[in-house]
Amino acid sequence: MKIADALVRLTHLVQHEFADGSRRNGITPQQAQLLCLLIDGRVRMTQLSRLLHLEKSSLTGLVDRTAQRGLVERVADSSDRRACQIRLTRQGRQVANKVHDEIAGRLEQLARSLPLSERSQLGASVGQLLDAAAFPKTVE
Amino acid sequence: MKIADALVRLTHLVQHEFADGSRRNGITPQQAQLLCLLIDGRVRMTQLSRLLHLEKSSLTGLVDRTAQRGLVERVADSSDRRACQIRLTRQGRQVANKVHDEIAGRLEQLARSLPLSERSQLGASVGQLLDAAAFPKTVE
DNA sequence: TATTGTTATACTCTATAACTATA
DNA sequence: TATAGTTATAGAGTATAACAATA
């Protein structure tokens, strides 16, 4: 199997874990992804748009719906009156941590099917791939 | 960075490649995923449902829309009159191959940022992860 | 002028529940 | 009865284009 096909299948696996983990917690996968991005702190719409690979208008709707569920809120950006920052509510943080830990736990468990040395090699290789792609980091 | 977070970020990378590759070819990422699954031959609805992690009714709609674009078609299953098989049309095969090759090419290119030995180790580790997850194969 | 974000609109994706037809 | 697939419905996700407010 080509490496590309392996990566695509791995992606499907992770996506399915996200779908299941989100559903167990009563949110959509997109909302879960948003919540997880906000765990490390508030983020601007434009930056979220880049991280999630979404048009600004799509993000507006996603944030609206997630805010309606009481999980995130918009706060004014003191340095730019056009902008706002999105942050987790108290409830949103609970859900974000729970969803993240469940999904990460499941993935860590899968990784334990590899010997320790192979596992750390895998992490290093994936990290290098991400760097090569100049993929935006969650926290910057 | 934990291995789980690395895998999630890798997933985002692949998803973004899929989004871009699909768009360049005038289809949605979901339709692209469907087309790629059909490259190796016709597949039943129930099996597609499992591979794509979708409810049967969701799949019906996806197949409907993809068929309306002339990319797939339903054919009767000779062994079970309740069932149908989905297959690529001639045009669908062209699009499927093009989308697959573009995305796979981009991912292979990224993989070339790793030394050859590390690359093959990555493929082996990912394969083992997929086996550990008992993840459904594309072709069976 | 450029940037940040929203609104309006249309289409796509998805799940739930109820259904038909066949096994 | 169980399985394969569809229909009806409602909500969520997404992009495009046009817009308002601020930089």
Brief digest:
The first copy, chain A, is mostly helical and 140 residues long. Chain A is 65% helix and 9% strand.
Determine the structural class of chain A based on helices, strands and strand pairing.
mainly alpha
Q: Approximately what portion of the residues of chain A adopt beta-strand conformation?
A: 5-15%
User: What is the tally of helical segments of chain A?
Assistant: 6
Shape of chain A: globular
- Which pair of chains forms the biggest interface, and how many residues does each contribute? A-B, 45 and 46 residues
Q: What topology, given as strand order, has the largest sheet of chain A?
A: 1-3-2
Radius of gyration of chain A: 17 Å
Explained architecture:
- The structure is a homodimer of 140-residue chains.
- Chain A is mainly α and 140 residues long.
- Chain A is 65% helix and 9% strand.
- In chain A, a hairpin with a 7-residue loop joins strand 2 (72-76) and strand 3 (84-88).
- The first copy, chain A, is globular, with a radius of gyration of 17 Å.
- Chain A starts with a helix and ends in an 8-residue tail after the last helix.
- Chains A and B meet through helix 1, helix 5 and helix 6 of A and helix 1, helix 5 and helix 6 of B.
- The first copy, chain A, binds a DNA duplex (23 and 23 nucleotides) through residues 23, 28, 30-31, 44-46, 49, 54-62, 65, 77, 80-84.
